[in-house]
Amino acid sequence: FENTSKPFDLLIPIYKDEETRGKIAKFNIAKESLETFKKFIASFDTNTLLIKTGIAKTDLEFLLNGITNDSLFQIKNENVFSDMDLLLQRLVSHISVKNKVVSGIKEVSDEIIHFKHIKVVNFSDEEISSFKQKVQKVKDFELIDKKTLKRKLRLENCLLMKH
After folding, report:
1. pLDDT tens for residues 93-147?
2. Are 102 and 13 in contact (CB under 8 A)?
3. Contact by Cβ (8 Å): 79, 28
4. 34, 124, 148, 161 - which has most CB atoms within 10 Å?
5. Rounded distance, CA 68 to CA 70, Å?
6. What is the pTM of this model?
7. H helix intervals, 54-113
8. Contact, 135 vs 1, CB < 8 A?
9. Among 137, 163, 150, 116, which Cα is nearest to 2's?
């Protein structure tokens, strides 16, 4: 059942990573946890943090700058952290998310393929034939205007009333 007709072009966006680090979502944390975390981070030098986190130096600088000036955080007192290593891992993951921007559009080629994975299993020849007829009916569907639809419905209603 390959559809060879192409009534219109289906366009999709093309995304790319933002080149500069744009705005980043705030990380929710309790005030007490933030104060403890700042002391925890202050206890390490930069090289130790680079090894501990495994992130690039520019990402670590961004993280440390955000911690220093509180630009990464939003105080939500229900978000309490007691494990500072876990909090550090979560923050590293949080800042690692890169914003995507639309760089253009393109015509769909083979990005949408879910319809190719349909399998018919344990159907009789009659059921397969019925299925093919239904698919063909959908393929042959034509839009009709409202006047024609109303006329057909009135005709069907009249026929039903006669029986």
Report:
1. 998 888 888 888 888 887 777 767 777 678 888 988 998 899 888 888 877 788 8
2. yes
3. yes
4. 34
5. 6
6. 0.54
7. 57-68, 84-96
8. yes
9. 116
